[in-house]
Amino acid sequence: MSARDRGRPKTSSLAALEDAAHELFLEQGYEGTSVDDIARRAGISRATFFNYFSSKSDVLWVDVDHALAGLEHYLQHSGHLGDALRAVAVEHPRDRIPLIVTQSEAMGLGADLAASAGIRLERLRGILAGSRVEASDVWIVLGALVGVLHQWATHQAPRVELGDALDEGLGRIRTVVGSRSVATLF
Amino acid sequence: MSARDRGRPKTSSLAALEDAAHELFLEQGYEGTSVDDIARRAGISRATFFNYFSSKSDVLWVDVDHALAGLEHYLQHSGHLGDALRAVAVEHPRDRIPLIVTQSEAMGLGADLAASAGIRLERLRGILAGSRVEASDVWIVLGALVGVLHQWATHQAPRVELGDALDEGLGRIRTVVGSRSVATLF
DNA sequence: TGACTTTATGTACTCAGTCCAATAAATAAC
DNA sequence: GTTATTTATTGGACTGAGTACATAAAGTCA
Lengths: 186, 186
Fold this sequence. Notes:
- The structure is a homodimer.
- By secondary structure, the first copy, chain A, is mainly α.
- Chain A folds into two domains: 14-54, Homeodomain-like (Arc Repressor Mutant, subunit A); 59-184.
- Chain A has nine helices and no strands.
- Chain A starts with 13 loop residues before the first helix and ends in a 10-residue tail after the last helix.
- Chain A binds a DNA duplex through helix 3.
């Protein structure tokens, strides 16, 4: 797009901050790690941290937020939910497993995890509600979808490609949730 | 039980703080209301507020938390999930509709609502996982259940008794989620 | 009256998140 | 080269949630 290389270049990156934070979370626990700690280890200032992330817990959700943004972007053009889901899933590297799933106890994640997860659930719920999902079906479809993703992250990745897991999962949902509208969604 | 009327009696109550907070949330918005404001209106000190609620957002979830506690308590004795759900639902007055559902925009609820909702979702998820729900079915059952409750709160209450809505909803889930274990759950 | 129990309160503290003004580092135009 | 413009970094002051704790207040019981 626009935004060529004008202005002062960035000193750090999402990935660098992610790495620094994850190290510290594993060493000291999530609660025991302050934003100052993360910034210090990444070699930036505290103020700059909030230039990359708008909250401490956002560091845990880089991949998921990226996927959600992709989903929203996709749906602005082609309207089909199933297509958008598949497109985003295919783009997702099979070895990128949200460490929220794999190492939540190791990081001492607790209420903060559930709370920040709530933000993402609400975002996905909004996406579903904005699609052709019937209002009364939104929650069960949301649950079904998250179930498929969670199953992939915990038991299938990185063996199985996310796109394949999703395909199979959506098929199962289609037959299981026999509701009127759901059949044409995916 | 125990705990007769010993010690200094409480000055306030959950309900009183709830009322004060709701007034302020409607007047000034959720974000625009500090814990100090709530305490002042209720005639207690800020420190005492945290004696009744462990966080500001907990004020929004009194009914839900009460129901969740009842559910957990019920399941410690009789193990049947459906029985426990029905028992808690029947106890719930039909005119007590969580105002999170009805007045969330009026209060300017945003990320805080989603985040605190996440805590309750995780709690309910834990309850389901602790029941006989198969691990791979937990999320879809959770979604189905929340969908039924949300539908009741938004479109049926207070016309319909929560217990009845739940019965009908669970029946629908049973036929719709034809999965192996789910049939015997409710 | 005095021991005991529970609640209320003030105070000091940590930390997340916001705001903003000042500075630094790059490019583009002249 | 010098200057204007753009974008990023930084320090510092600030708000407000939540914690910790020591102390006072208000009741019951012996």
